[in-house]
Write a structure and sequence with these properties.
The protein is of the alpha/beta class and 294 residues long. It is built from nine helices and seven strands. It has a seven-stranded parallel sheet, sandwiched between helices. Strand 1, helix 2 and strand 2 form a beta-alpha-beta unit. Helix 4 packs parallel to helix 5 and helix 5 packs parallel to helix 6. It is globular and about 50 Å long. The relative contact order is 0.12.
Length: 294
């Protein structure tokens, strides 16, 4: 009984110390200068507004100037701080100007959220014009590379963070998403490499997303005919995650200094299933695609 009491007391002390340490490590977002690409709608817009409520200074970056200004003005009306910069991440010089203008105005960059992205929905052998695969790579992969290239010198100075809005398709093959999956695989490999090369200099968070309600990703998805063709908008199933809940979990992961977060959590099974139960994973993936066709 005495030994049990000793271990109980030691356990209580250890837990108290652990909680104190964890609380100390929680990232404070107030006054952090955060650049968010794809900030004009969907996850990017909601992240911008939610992070601003926590006191972060938000740099809203996207191609649509009017929408950027709308988001920025809404943040300011709500008492937050935001600065819109029209940016096409596919253009290298736009990314240089994005970082330059941010530093000129605020003196630093604390975080870069790589959120801008473009999807597709078509079997590869049914695509008539594959030229839009370059658009997918330029947006989802090279756009992120461009941003990182110019942001890294500033992020090193602040021991900052790169957050990538990734997907389950970055971890496995996915029907109807060949070009999208390839671009996300590339981004995953690129940032995984940077996290090793820049260890102890900056930190990384990979956000692995499933289907999220309330974004334009499905509406803007590219289809069979050519790069200008939009696919028919498909309704989400009950498995899709609410946009507000998605953003809440992303911010919690940022504050908790996590390196990876799965939304929904069941996606965390993918790496395990891919190694030990490949056939089962493929069957579940095909079923998921069938449920989301309409």
């Amino acid at each position: 009984h005495v030994i049990q009491k000793i271990f109980s007391v030691l356990g209580t002390i250890f837990l108290a110390i652990s909680n104190l340490f964890l609380n100390h490590q929680k990232l404070v977002l107030n006054k952090k200068v955060i650049i968010i690409t794809g900030a004009s709608s969907g996850i990017g817009e909601h992240l911008s507004k939610s992070l601003a409520k926590k006191g972060a200074i938000i740099i809203c970056a996207a191609r649509r100037k009017n929408e950027l200004e709308r988001v920025s003005n809404e943040i300011k009306k709500d008492g937050g701080s935001a600065y819109p910069i029209k940016t096409d991440i596919r253009i290298l010089d736009d990314c240089r100007k994005l970082m330059q203008k941010t530093v000129e105005k605020y003196g630093k960059i604390d975080a870069l959220i790589l959120n801008a992205g473009l999807s597709m929905w078509s079997k590869f052998d049914e695509i008539e014009d594959i030229s839009y695969f370059k658009t997918l790579m330029d947006t989802n992969y090279m756009g992120a590379v461009n941003c990182c290239h110019y942001a890294l010198p500033y992020l090193k100075k602040t021991a900052g963070k790169i957050i990538s809005s990734s997907t389950a398709q970055a971890l496995m093959g996915f029907p109807n998403h060949s070009g999208y999956a390839a671009s996300k695989h590339a981004l995953h490999g690129f940032l995984s490499t940077l996290s090793i090369e820049l260890k102890y200099q900056i930190s990384f968070l990979e956000v692995i997303l499933g289907w999220i309600k309330g974004t334009n990703l499905r509406y803007n998805a590219l289809g069979q005919n050519d790069k200008n063709t939009k696919t028919e908008v498909r309704k989400h199933t009950e498995e899709a995650v609410d946009l507000n809940e998605c953003v809440r979990k992303i911010i919690l992961a940022i504050e908790s200094e996590k390196t990876k977060v799965y939304i929904p959590k069941k996606l965390s099974l993918i790496p395990f299933l891919k190694v030990f139960f490949t056939t089962l994973l493929e069957k579940k993936t095909i079923k998921a695609i069938e449920r989301n066709k309409k």
